[in-house]
Design goal:
Radius of gyration: 12 Å
Distance between the termini: 37 Å
Strand content: under 5%
Number of helices: 3
Length: about 60
């Protein structure tokens, strides 16, 4: 996947209403293209936040 294509994919998927599965796929794509990506770090933090909210405070 080219860098420009990955940016287009990220732009389409990193919006409100995105599913957790889509976020995880975007993260994999970003990590594949740019392993030390700050954007990927932010996406990873968002995923962890969503997962912890789903588990609840006592998980």
């Amino acid at each position: 996947m080219s860098y420009e294509k990955a940016l287009q994919v990220a732009e389409r998927t990193l919006i409100d209403g995105v599913t957790l599965t889509e976020l995880k796929q975007a993260l994999r794509d970003l990590r594949a293209l740019i392993p030390n990506s700050a954007l990927a770090d932010l996406v990873d933090a968002k995923i962890k936040s969503i997962e912890s909210q789903k588990r609840g405070p006592n998980a």
